[in-house]
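Weekly structure sync, notes
Attendees: PL (lead), two postdocs, one rotation student
Agenda item 3: pending single-chain targets
PL asked that the sequence for the first pending target be pasted directly into the notes so everyone works from the same version. It is reproduced below exactly as submitted, 114 residues in total.
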Amino acid sequence: MRTPAGTECRYYYEDYYRGKETQECRLIARTSSGGRWKPALCRTCPVPAILRANACPSMALQAHVARRLHFWERVQVEAFCTSRLVEVKDPYVGCGHCHDERAGADIFSLPEDR
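Predicted structure, written out during the meeting:
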């Protein structure tokens, strides 16, 4: 669904049917340690860019609202690989192991690596 910032995100939900006014981030709502989400956080949220860059089905994301300098709020994201059970350092790239296991991944390797 399209966020208030104009980007596509699978975790954003809104409902305005028959007078309802519901807007929520379902990724932040799942975590209990997250702060209060508001639509303005979608402008700086890294989750839509991560989802565009990495479509690995075994990557799980967790997000929470973090405060900086007591008044700036940002969304912080942590990523985990569910097949290797490791923390992903760069969620834009992934864990680095799952891509090798996918069918047809060898066409992207260099000829000397084969």
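Discussion points:
- The two ends are 41 Å apart (CA to CA).
- The first helix runs from residue 26 to 30.
Action: rotation student to compare against the earlier draft before next sync.
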